[in-house]
Structures are given as structure tokens and as C-alpha cells.
UniProtKB/TrEMBL annotation:
This is DNA-binding response regulator. SUPFAM superfamilies: C-terminal effector domain of the bipartite response regulators, CheY-like. GO terms for molecular function: DNA binding. SMART domains: HTH_LUXR (SM00421), REC (SM00448). Keywords: DNA-binding, Phosphoprotein, Transcription, Transcription regulation. One of its GO terms (biological process) is phosphorelay signal transduction system. It holds the Pfam family Response_reg. InterPro entries: CheY-like_superfamily, NreC/VraR/RcsB-like_REC, Sig_transdc_resp-reg_C-effctor, Sig_transdc_resp-reg_receiver, Tscrpt_reg_LuxR_C, WalR-like. The modification 4-aspartylphosphate is found at D52. Residues 2-122 form the Response regulatory domain. Residues 144-211 form the HTH luxR-type domain. It comes from Streptomyces niveus (Streptomyces spheroides). It comes from the Bacteria.
């Protein structure tokens, strides 16, 4: 796995590189600016880009803008975005721009090495990895959406774990239920959110994006 890292804090940038190299991963380039990481992506053609949300010069959304541009230039690129805070609009900007091989984690998650590496590998394999704290806040802001109100508390739990990128078996393990029970809950979620089996979109992804889009509309 070839990785590039964009982080303006040199200590965190080098710390991430050391951590990943210690795990046998190939960090091919690091940069402290969004422009620098885009140049590195063009040059090295990595498999995964890890980007900070806030980078010079304005320290606002340079990382998200770079992530979207990087995926435009290199459609198969997996992107894992790191943020110091839950920034909901940035999460929806990234996720609605492409929902395979993307992740959004709080920086504090990096200190939980196993969780961070699991998220990285999940994103590299084409899945999603959304920080549980981001999911929780999105659900809190979306609770008055009428479609989401149709869900039972257990179905909300299942959808929240789907949003984190967990598969059925991992959800079953987390909730201490059977795989069959999870499958049943997911079928019910699809029905209550009006997601038809004939839809051409991935219903699992669409279910997660329903409430993300609602958050975007409500600002």
C-alpha cells in the first residue's frame, strides 16, 4: 500500500509516517500544504492519501478541497481525512462527492493505533470509515427527519455502525446479535427509507447518505 500524507504540523506528519512505516506500509511522500500533496499524488500515484482538513494558507477547508480534487485526478484513490473537530459540512462535502474508499476520522483516533489502522485498511479496500463521534453528531442534528423517525432504536444503532463502514458481521459482533438479525434490520431500514431493491444505487450507501444530505440542507 503506497501512501501520501498531508499535514501542516510537522510533528504529527512525521509521527504518522513513522507509525505507518513501522507497520510495513510504504509512505512515499509527505507534504505540509494542499498544493504540495496534489503534486505528490501526481508524481507518485499512491493508493491512499491521508489529509488534514485545515491546512495553509487559510486553515479552513484546504484538505477537503484537495481530497475532492485528488479523487478527480485519480479516481481510484482512497482518501482518509483527519480533523481535530467534528466538522459536519466538511464530512458531507467529502462523502457525497464519492462514497467508495473514503474516510473521515478525528485526529484523536490516530492515538488508538488499532482503530486507526483498521480504518485505513478499510478505506484502502474501497470501504468507508466514519468516526463514531461524527456519526453521533450527524444523527443528533438529523433526528427530526421524518424518514429517520421511522427507524426503531435498534435500526438507528445498525445504521450508525453502517455509517462507520462496518460490515454485517462486525455490526453483529458490536451489537451482540446474530448476522441474520442484522440482515433483517438492514432490510427494514431500506424499506423505511424508501430504498427500493430496483434502485441502481448502492442501497447501503444511500441509507447513510440520506441523513448526511439532510444535515447539509439544514446547515
Amino acid at each position: 500500500m503506497r501512501i501520501v500524507i498531508a499535514e501542516d504540523d510537522p510533528l504529527l506528519r512525521e509521527g504518522l509516517a513513522l507509525l505507518l512505516r513501522a507497520e510495513g506500509l510504504d509512505v512515499v511522500a509527505t507534504a505540509g500544504t494542499a498544493d504540495g500533496i496534489l503534486d505528490a499524488i501526481d508524481e507518485h500515484e499512491p493508493d491512499v492519501a491521508i489529509l488534514d482538513v485545515r491546512m495553509p494558507p487559510t486553515h479552513t477547508d484546504e484538505g477537503i478541497v484537495a481530497a475532492v480534487e485528488a479523487r478527480r485526478r485519480r479516481p481510484g484513490l482512497a482518501v482518509l481525512v483527519l480533523s481535530a473537530y467534528v466538522e459536519q459540512s466538511f464530512a458531507t462535502d467529502l462523502l457525497t462527492g464519492g462514497v467508495t474508499g473514503v474516510g473521515y476520522l478525528l485526529k484523536e483516533r490516530v492515538g488508538r493505533v488499532e482503530e486507526f489502522l483498521d480504518a485505513l485498511h478499510r478505506v484502502a479496500d474501497g470501504g468507508t470509515a466514519i468516526d463514531p463521534d461524527v456519526v453521533a453528531q450527524l444523527f443528533t442534528r438529523s433526528r427530526d427527519d421524518t424518514r429517520l423517525e421511522r427507524l426503531s432504536p435498534r435500526e438507528r444503532d445498525v445504521l450508525a455502525l453502517m455509517a462507520e463502514g462496518l460490515g454485517n458481521s462486525a455490526i453483529a459482533e458490536r451489537l451482540v446479535v446474530t448476522d441474520g438479525a442484522v440482515h433483517k434490520h438492514i432490510r427494514s431500514i431500506f424499506a423505511k427509507l424508501d430504498l427500493s431493491p430496483t434502485d441502481r444505487t448502492d442501497r447501503r450507501v444511500a441509507a447513510v447518505l440520506r441523513y448526511l444530505e439532510d444535515v447539509r440542507r439544514r446547515g
